[in-house]
Amino acid sequence: MIDSNETIEEFLAEHASDVEEAIRKAAATEIMPRWRQLAAHEVEQKSGPHDLVTDADRKAELYLTEELGTLLPASVVVGEEAVHANPASYEAIRGDAPVWIVDPVDGTRQFVRGEAGFCTLVALAHRGTLLASWTYAPARDRLAYAQRGKGAHLDGERLFAGVPQPGRDLRVATSHPDYTTEEEKHALLGLRADGVAPRPCGSAGLEYLAIARGESDAVAFSWEAAWDHAAGLLLVEEAGGAHLTLAGEPFRIAGGNALPFTAARDAATARRVVSLLSGGA
């Protein structure tokens, strides 16, 4: 059993490229052959018409579960589709073993529509601390990697989120209304303020990447599912950004967060977004 982050750092030094290769192969064998080729029986609803799952989601997650578990035998995998089948498996995020957090196709709605705005998300965490993450957009063949304390990179180039341009409206991607309670909807109304330009989010992973690249200023999300957030939160952090919950605390992947929460290009913007959300609540 791995018992220290230092040991995981040694694993990453040797095997980060192997993780990337596994992600690329999962996309090449299980996702991209189905992109724009899905039959009706390969798409199902989970909790509603906006919560879809496809054969690509299921098969890519199975592929990654096997490959990542082989690379790091002491680890466990928490994947979106496995948790849907067995909700109790989510508890592994709170355990002592290193955990891979996997969203095989983030942006399934976009994938089903044949759009390019989807990605595969993988994060490695230990005892609640995010240590590494991979965000791969296979239709665009772009891969972002972040490692705690070592920065964030996109296709090998260092990412710096920077700060929002003075005098320009804050560009903020927000939760889809179907995934918000009435209280959260009311909080999000706080973003309808002068100097803010809210819009519905697309793939969460790609929204986080846009912040890390300085193309977007913030997100305001109202759900906790770690597979949607883990990879992107570390990416934003390592690009110089910050994240805060409605309680003014960093988001915890183990859960128990005051929602909505934000991730932003810098700490000042994160505080501003939380202040607006608090005013709307």
Overall structural domain count: 2
What structural class is derived from the secondary structure elements? Answer: alpha+beta
User: So, the CATH homologous superfamily of the largest domain?
Assistant: Fructose-1,6-Bisphosphatase, subunit A, domain 1
Could you say what the CATH topology of the largest domain is called? Fructose-1,6-Bisphosphatase, Chain A, domain 1
Beta content comes to: 25-35%
Instruction: Give the CATH level 1 class of the largest domain.
Output: Alpha Beta
* CATH architecture identity of the largest domain: 2-Layer Sandwich
Shape by Cα distribution: globular
Mean pLDDT, as a whole number? 93
The total of beta strands comes to 14
Given as residue ranges, the uncertain stretches (5+ residues, pLDDT < 50) are none
- Reading the helices and strands in chain order gives HEEHEHEHEEEEEEHEHEHEEH
GO molecular function: inositol monophosphate 1-phosphatase activity; metal ion binding
Cofactor: Mg(2+)
GO biological process, one term: inositol metabolic process
Keywords: Hydrolase, Magnesium, Metal-binding
